[in-house]
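Review form for a predicted model. The reviewer records the input and the model, then writes brief findings.
Reviewer: anonymous (R2)
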Amino acid sequence: MRKDLSHFRTAAWGLTAALAAFTVPATAQVCTTSKIGFIAGSGTDDRSANCVGLFYCYKPELLAVRYETVGGCDPGTAACGVRAVVPGRFPSARKNSTSIGYYDSPVKLTFTNSSGGFVGSCGNLGARIQVDEGDTYIQAGNFSCSDPQAMSGADTYTLTAVVCDGASGCRKQTSTSVPLTPSAAAAALCPSPPPRPPMSCDAGDRSCSVCFFLRLRIEAAGDFIAQ
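Model under review:
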């Protein structure tokens, strides 16, 4: 019996090592489509195990959406790829190690479209997300400030973050709306139009064309009366 247990332990350790070797580092996260992605952060949030005394399963936090172009492209001069980026925090998720039998991805991230259809996900078999923070993004194309409506792939998406999906009774999730629309991208990435000149002659500088001609007529009338 002791010999059999020894073989069992050896096999179990071998399986753990194999699964760990199959894992893709979070900094090189592979998602189900190139339209989305995850970039791992380096921050940590140390908390105590809150799931059966072994796992760290705290509700994820999804922060405010920000917008950026791909590769430093300038939408004022060219059509660019544009991303809606959602910073996320996953307290102590990095501690959910394969060494204690947690073989699923500690963090899973899924985008759906405005109709509820699946778009893509990150944190899948062979590409675990095991960090305490990181940025999740979804991308659209052909965005420019001169013609925002030409953007391809625009929609208002939903991002759902799940932690401890593989730990029975400990699953936590959060969802947030991610507007990747022409108006949202333009508001964030394009300069505001210059203000219209005031329709008033109070300043006396004749900068308003309507005021200029009104002033000329008033001055002409004054000259006529003076004669």
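Findings: The beta strands are 36-40, 61-62, 66-69, 80-89, 107-112, 118-122, 133-143, 155-163, 172-180.
Further findings: Residues 22 and 155 are 34 Å apart (CA to CA).
Recommendation: see findings above.
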